[in-house]
Write a structure and sequence with these properties.
The chain has 71 residues and is of the alpha+beta class. 35% of the residues lie in helices and 27% in strands. It has one domain. Strands 1-2-3-4 form a four-stranded antiparallel beta sheet. Helix 1 packs across helix 2.
């Protein structure tokens, strides 16, 4: 299942590099994916505001101001 999280991360990063914003990535990649277990949660960390998308693997896709990562 960790491969699924990495595949989602790569797909989100690719879409972001192509100019997609979070709402577009949510609609086209994440919204209907069976490994996404909930809606985005807004948080703040030391780099500023983030959106965290929970995954079935127990990990989260973290959309920050500078990067998208797994947590």
């Amino acid at each position: 299942m960790a491969d699924v999280a990495n595949e989602l991360l790569q797909a989100c990063n690719s879409a972001s590099r192509d100019g997609a914003d979070f709402p577009t990535i949510w609609q086209k990649i994440l919204n209907r994916n069976i490994f996404v277990t909930g809606t985005a949660i807004q948080r703040i960390n030391n780099e500023g505001p983030t959106l965290e998308v929970p995954l079935l693997t127990g990990q989260r896709l973290i959309f920050g101001a500078k990067a998208i990562s797994l947590g």
